Amino acid sequence: MQVVILKDAAEVAAYGADIFTTQLKRKANSVLGLATGSTPVALYQELIKRNQANEISFAEVTSFNLDEYLGLDGSHPQSYRYFMQQQLFDHINIDKSNTHVPPGDAKNPITACGEYEARIKSAGGIDVQLLGIGRNGHIGFNEPSSGLTSRTRVKTLTKATIDDNARFFKADEYQPHLSITMGIGTILDAKKVVLLATGENKADAVVAMVEYPLTAACPASALQMHRDAVIVIDEAAASKLKDIEFYKHIENENQKLLDYLASL
Which pTM does this prediction carry? Predict the structure, then answer.
C-alpha cells in the first residue's frame, strides 16, 4: 500500500487525474472502475479538462461503476447513473454503451449481480479502480462486516451511510436502504486501486485503513492485501496517522527512484 499525502483536496484531485492520464496514454482501451460521491468530482473535472484539451481520449474506454441504489432507475436524479452522466460521461468522448453501472431497477437483482461480474470478466478485468472511503471505512457500499472476498451483490446500508447520504435527498423523497455494489473481492481483482480521501472527517477511517489490523470492521483495510493500491489523501485526512513524516519520506524516496529509472 502506497500512501501519498498532499496539501489539500485540489492536489489530491490532480494527483489522481495524473494516474488516470498515465493509464489512458499507456492503454487507450483501458477498463476503468469509477466511483461516485463528492470526493471524485474534482478529479472528474480535471479529466474533463484534459479530454477537451485533447490530452487524453476516452473513445476506446470501458467503465464499470462500483455501486447503485437498489430501487432507482438511471433517470432518477439521485441515481449513480445520473450522477455519472452529469459529472463525467456527458462531457467526454466516451461511448455511452461502454459505460456500465449496476442496474438499480433490475427485476431480479440477484441475477443482475452475477451478470455484472460476468461483464467485468468479459471486458478483461478492471485496469484502474477509483475508490472513496466512507466515515465508517466502507468502500463502494461494502459496509462494516462485509466479507473480504465478497463479490457483486445486494447490500443493506448502515444507518451511518444512510444518514451521511440523506443530504442528497429531499425531506419527502424516498431514500433507498439497499444497494447493488461490487464486492471487496471484486475490487481487489483490479490491477491497480486508487483511493482518494480528503477532509478531517475521513481521518478516523484513513488511520483504520492504513495502520490498524486487517478487519471486516473496516472494509477499506482489505486494500492492505492489494499488490498495487495507492492511497491519496490530503493533510486533514492524514491527521491521525502516527507518523506522517514517514509516509512523506517514503513517497519522496519512491519519486527519486522513478526519476532515476526514467533517466536510464
Answer: 0.92
